Amino acid sequence: MLEREKTVDTPSADHDAMALYWRTVADILGGIETMRRGGSRHLPRFPEESDADYKFRLSQTKLTNIFGDILDTLAAKPFTKEVALVDGSASPKIAALAEDIDGQGTNLHRFAASLFHDGLRDAIVWLFVDYTSNVPQDATVATEKALGARPYFVRLAADNMLDVRTASIDGEEQFILARWRERSVVKDGEWGEKMVERVRVVKREAIDAEGEATRYAPATWELWERVETPNRYPGNEWQIVDAGEISLGVIPLVPFVTGRRVGGSWRIEPPLRAAAELQIELYQQESGLKFLKEMCCYPMLSGNGVTPDKDAAGNAAPIRVGPKSVLYSPMDSNGRYGEWKFIEPQATTMRVLMDDIKETQQQLRELGRQPLTAQSGNLTTVTTAFAATKANSVISAWALELKDVLEAGFVYVAAWIKDPSEAEIFVNTDIASGIPDDRGIDALLEARKNGDLSRATLLEEMKRRDMLGPEFTLEREDERLLDEAPGEPDDDEYSATNVTPLRPASNQ
Q1: Domain map (residue ranges) of the chain
Q2: SS3 (DSSP) at 54
């Protein structure tokens, strides 16, 4: 087999090492149809199983997507409070950009939530700070404003990032190369459309100086596009369709990493790998049980001592079975006759499979660090609370990392527009586990009783521990308490409580 010619879209070894995980997660989150399209990658074939039998078994698969629930739940935790610029930390111009941070109407909070979700899903996601293209080098502020020129955030999915390389520059690790895919749908003729595949390359060329450490030139960019060439193997080639310089001089790229980076490579150990693998096992278990039910939902008819009818080809003719069918067992010349009976499978195997599925589901939810109060099973309260606390600390660390990434992005934004302000981002890192801490709340109530704690602080702590709903506010609670408080009786109420008896009192 001929090795494919390496081109600008050839993935790096780091990308290839993680591609299977990204594909597996994408299949899980895509639902049952993408899992089925994954075929034997997720549902292995039986030995000697025919294509027809495997296709039928694959069509009966089942997916309870606990992994997707885990991902969405964990990814939402830092965003119960709005991600925003800290008041006074940024100029009005940067604050205005934050309201439409990607140039497509997405505010900072929504962009951060998407970035966090993708980073948790794929273990890494990339933030690139770009600037409006086709702006002249010597453009004035008025010209840039007229062209709508501005910096903006771009979220680059892990699977689209083909290659990244770094080098030590001025004592710190800096990017010297990044290649990523850019796919877009364009009009094709009057009514049709087609996919255009592009690869963007940003790089800094090395400059060797004798007797000195390697230096690097200012950053440049190239945009490559796939061009159809039917007469050339493998049927296409890539051409540069646009190029230019990055006036910042550096590559404005920031990684958001939730996993563990392996050495100096860009291979990341995904934090949810174990959960994804267990989700695949659950898919196989549930699919096996469903297939077994399909095979065993009807008893099998057995004919003992019965000669089957033959068709024209000499094969046993199919037998119609049902409430309006009659099966005969003729007696032979010796007075013996056959009999029909149904063979029904035992339910023991199905009960064992159902128990295995429940155990796997429980293990999967525990891996996801979700509150397990609704499905505690054999988990003790201590085990459940420990799992939730561990998740809480991990999510807090991820939220802090997100804050650093966003602030690094705004450093590039400020550099693009030559703004001296240093934006500070608020990201909620005080994330409650979702498991009420009875001992903790008792201590708070005691402190409140002794006058060491204000009522407002007590209620805030109860809300932080998820003991009060997300809609709870002190202002609304104060209004409700005022509404419930008894008021001074008016004249009508006073007279109603001092009614003169209808009959005069007895003179006795």
Answers
A1: 13-276, 440-481
A2: helix
